[in-house]
Known about the structure:
There is one protein chain. The protein has strands at 5-13, 17-28, 32-44, 51-65, 69-81, 90-91, 101-102, 117-132, 138-157, 168-195, 198-227, 248-249, 271-272, 275-297, 300-319, 329-346, 351-362, 381-394, 399-416, 424-444, 447-462, 480-488, 498-507, 510-512, 517-518, 524-526, 531-533, 536-546, 551-558, 566-568, 577-578, 583-592. The protein is an all-beta fold. The protein has a 22-stranded antiparallel barrel. Strands 6-7 form a two-stranded antiparallel sheet. A two-stranded antiparallel ribbon has the order 12-13. A hairpin with a 5-residue loop joins strand 8 and strand 9. The chain is globular, with a radius of gyration of 28 Å.
Amino acid sequence: xxxxxxxxxxxxxxxxxxxxxxxxxxxxxxxxxxxxxxxxxxxxxxxxxxxxxxxxxxxxxxxxxxxxxxxxxxxxxxxxxxxxxxxxxxxxxxxxxxxxxxxxxxxxxxxxxxxxxxxxxxxxxxxxxxxxxxxxxxxxxxxxxxxxxxxxxxxxxxxxxxxxxxxxxxxxxxxxxxxxxxxxxxxxxxxxxxxxxxxxxxxxxxxxxxxxxxxxxxxxxxxxxxxxxxxxxxxxxxxxxxxxxxxxxxxxxxxxxxxxxxxxxxxxxxxxxxxxxxxxxxxxxxxxxxxxxxxxxxxxxxxxxxxxxxxxxxxxxxxxxxxxxxxxxxxxxxxxxxxxxxxxxxxxxxxxxxxxxxxxxxxxxxxxxxxxxxxxxxxxxxxxxxxxxxxxxxxxxxxxxxxxxxxxxxxxxxxxxxxxxxxxxxxxxxxxxxxxxxxxxxxxxxxxxxxxxxxxxxxxxxxxxxxxxxxxxxxxxxxxxxxxxxxxxxxxxxxxxxxxxxxxxxxxxxxxxxxxxxxxxxxxxxxxxxxxxxxxxxxxxxxxxxxxxxxxxxxxxxxxxxxxxxxxxxxxxxxxxxxxxxxxxxxxxxxxx
Length: 593
């Protein structure tokens, strides 16, 4: 850092949205520097009674130790209290096999409870020591720790559909208390060496990560009901994730329930019992990795590398209603190699072509009480990604065009055997293919543009339910998306300092859920749970004015036309979310250096 610098902003907008940010950097002598900052945001939501709040801060210090060594130490704190929202249900499909449909209710409709709350606190600290051992090689050691404390207390609707005339659905109360600690370390070296008459790059490193977490939960199902057409928040029931609680009367029934906290058969009428439990999960992983970038010819770069991973997970049950604790389960992976490779060809100084391949794996565990029929360990979720693309620079590098195509496959997906409650199967394979194209740049002084197109197609290749094979994996993701943005800021003249811009984003139609199923004789077995969101576009606008080098103001208006649409859909059960109505947000910025 060469000089003191400060940036601050304050903003206000729709739904009592208030936000403040501060970022300060300052040198300390000639060998050290300090940067620190803070943010705070408080905001209501467009759906009734919901609120979110966030505060955070960070500090980073740097110190040069001699001419070749640098030390960086820092940390940040984040406290997040988001709005808890499980979305809206849909209307079940017809008895004739027709699809269901999304609810046409006010966007402010909220089917949670007015006492819902969520609190997550995250503390993070890190340190990095870098030492330049020569003009070509640098060694770097880093360490990171993160502690997360989280408490969730909320009520949400069950996963049942409603009808056009009956909007009654169940409510589920939940409390979860969890703590998570993560420690990670990395040591690597990066450098270059001469070969083929030019410098080549090599990275070698090793890393280690350990995490330990505990979680306790309780869930009280069907303790209340709510009408989606006239929602009234249920009352908060007692929720104890650390032990048994007696039967609870379903709200609104006037039931008198026994004081027993153990299951009674048959169950008392209009009385429900909490389920609860606790567990801990310890994960330890370490590995070695490397990457080499070779340029055997001018304009041609070959990239190769990979990682060898060792992974161990131990899960322990800490609390059960029966008091019987099963033995801990362990899941391990040894010497798992995940390679990647790529090639970049600079055809000219303005055009390049590239292609790449990468392997991935994600450890996974069988659901509680289930195992593979052969008794073998669950295999990790394995992925392979192929990508090829090009980048073209035009107008003296003022305009950049890019295009890419990719394919991702995943195998070893888990499926619960519907006939044997203790068996899980690994037979799933899925594929995603896509195309992305983008143009960005400043085509005239002060006039910036950005536009892009995304095509996404997902597909079940193999599935335990053969009827799914060939169908989209995630039809709730738009197959086509187009986005265009422009902003004009005159560089001189009477309008210098002003700026005006806007964007429009278009999404193709989506659907979620499963089609109706008919018996062999043509009678209906199960109704359709499919809901559909037609294609739609959202227009955003912005304007700003920079009074001088230090002070500026801007106003952003999202969804200018106040388009009503579902931004995310699932099926006729819960999980359908309206997009935000029109909102405005004004920001005042100040900088000093």
